[in-house]
């Protein structure tokens, strides 16, 4: 990876979230100066971080600092919350992004804009492993909003307001044990928390649906490296995952095994039918082909699923003490 010639400065939105908070710290540890856009000031113990407080529920208004990069991670992430109130979701995810882009335009700073997308934007597909050439086929309001946000950023780049618009489409991210309340966490993290608390783990359908589980540490590194190598990312859209498929049931067996080993707790796995309101996308088989991003940046996922689940189990266990 090419070294940055001067101290890079970044704005990170969603800086209080799982990926955002880790990215803020990762960037600072690697020599960046960071402005953290968040409703919380969560970084008082660290030098090199300036918090810009804003409340997403009451509109985004702020003066964008003079930064070279913007990492846009702020998002409402539930497809079901989006469906329950489409207007509010579009206001949060699409208009929130547009407000940030407007702030960048007014500042006349021309940064690289790197945002989080989702592999679910491809929708249901007969292919297992998907590369960037596959057509998008959103099947939820959440994915429609994500794609809309990307289109607005792409247009801003065409207008010359951004140096480039880059989207990293993330596979199934896991590895968040920062909070005990996991109601809105990812499936693996919620399953680990339930197992640690002696709560049965429920899976739907056959459990044989294939996913690409990627650890949050690898995802954070992908975002930082995307910033470092932004001038090489001409394709603009990149898939981020391990390239390895694991069935939901296999992942849950792995969790049960690790929880038993580390705590002595026996985990019950419970099969259930999908709820009537469940999206068909829940039944997808999907693995991310990340070869293009690897080729452009040298990034590669470093944490295998077994090791990542073991570390997550230990982190959840320690968080209860």
Distance between the termini: 40 Å
- Weakly predicted, low-confidence segments: 179-184
Give me the strand/helix succession.
EHEEEHHEEHEEHEEEHEEHEEHH
**Oligomerization status of the protein chains:** single chain
Q: How much β-strand is present in the residues? A: 15-25%
User: Which structural category fits the helices and strands?
Assistant: alpha/beta
Number of strands: 15
Which fold name is given in CATH as the topology of the domain at 9-173 and 214-241?
Answer: Rossmann fold
CATH-wise, what's the superfamily of the domain at 9-173 and 214-241? NAD(P)-binding Rossmann-like Domain
> Could you describe the largest sheet, including whether it forms a barrel?
7 strands, parallel
CATH class of the domain at 9-173 and 214-241 reads Alpha Beta
Cα shape:
globular
């Amino acid at each position: 990876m090419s070294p940055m010639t001067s101290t890079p400065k970044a704005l990170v939105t969603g800086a209080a979230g799982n990926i955002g908070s880790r990215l803020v710290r990762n960037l600072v540890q690697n020599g960046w100066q960071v402005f953290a856009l968040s409703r919380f000031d969560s970084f008082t113990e660290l030098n090199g971080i300036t918090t810009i407080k804003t409340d997403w529920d009451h509109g985004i208004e702020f003066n964008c600092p003079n930064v070279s990069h913007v990492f846009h991670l702020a998002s409402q992430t539930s497809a079901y919350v989006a469906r329950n109130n489409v207007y509010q979701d579009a206001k949060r995810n699409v208009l929130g992004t547009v407000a940030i882009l407007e702030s960048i335009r007014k500042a006349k700073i021309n940064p690289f804009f790197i945002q989080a997308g989702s592999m679910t934007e491809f929708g249901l597909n007969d292919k297992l492993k998907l590369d960037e050439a596959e057509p998008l086929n959103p099947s939820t309001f959440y994915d429609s909003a994500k794609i809309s946000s990307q289109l607005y950023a792409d247009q801003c780049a065409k207008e010359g307001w951004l140096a480039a618009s880059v989207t990293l489409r993330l596979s199934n991210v896991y590895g968040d044990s920062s909070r005990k309340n996991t109601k809105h966490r990812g499936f693996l993290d919620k399953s680990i928390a339930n197992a640690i608390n002696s709560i049965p783990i429920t899976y739907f359908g056959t459990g044989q649906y294939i996913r690409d589980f990627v650890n949050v540490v690898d995802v954070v590194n992908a975002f930082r490296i995307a910033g470092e190598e932004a001038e090489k990312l001409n394709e603009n859209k990149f898939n981020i995952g391990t390239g390895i498929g694991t069935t939901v049931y296999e992942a849950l067996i792995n969790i049960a095994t690790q929880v038993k080993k580390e705590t002595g707790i026996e985990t019950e796995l419970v099969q259930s039918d999908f709820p009537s309101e469940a999206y068909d996308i829940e039944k997808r088989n999907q693995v991310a082909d990340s070869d293009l991003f690897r080729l452009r940046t040298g990034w590669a996922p470093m944490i295998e699923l077994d090791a990542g689940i073991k570390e997550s189990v230990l982190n959840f266990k320690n968080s209860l003490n």
